[in-house]
Description:
Elements: E1 2-8, H1 26-42, E2 47-50, H2 54-64, E3 71-74, H3 84-97, E4 103-108, H4 112-120, E5 133-139, E6 144-151
Parallel strand pairs: 1-4, 2-3, 2-4
Antiparallel strand pairs: 1-5, 5-6
Helix pairs in contact: 1-2, 3-4
Amino acid sequence: xxxxxxxxxxxxxxxxxxxxxxxxxxxxxxxxxxxxxxxxxxxxxxxxxxxxxxxxxxxxxxxxxxxxxxxxxxxxxxxxxxxxxxxxxxxxxxxxxxxxxxxxxxxxxxxxxxxxxxxxxxxxxxxxxxxxxxxxxxxxxxxxxxxxxxxxxxxx
Length: 156
C-alpha cells in the first residue's frame, strides 16, 4: 500500500493577471510550514509532485524543510485548469516507476485537487481550505484508492 497526499497550496496573494506568478502570503507560508511539520509526524512524504505555479512551489519548499524526497518533479498537469484524468494517470505511472517511494505528496490548486481526489476515489470531492491535505490509501497492485481524511492547518 502507498499513501497519496493531495495538498492545496497555502494562502496566496489576490488574483492578478498572471495567476502563475502569485506568491504565498505570510499566512500561506505559516500554513505550509505547519502542515509540513504535521506531515513529518504522521505521513512523512518521500516523493513530491508539484505544480509549476509560484505559490505551489513555495508551499512545497516549506514542506520540504521537514522531508527528504527520493523523487521530486514539477508537473504542468496539476495546474488549476489541468485535467484530473491525465494527472491521475501520470501519478499512477510515477508510483509504478518508483516503487521505493511509499508516500506521495501532490501540491497543487483548487479545483484540480478536488477533482483529483474524485478521480482516484470516485464520489469523494472535498473542498480544500488553503494548506489542506487529503489523505488517500492506494493499492498499486489493484490501482484502487480509498479516501481517508482531509486535514487543514486549523485542525491539526
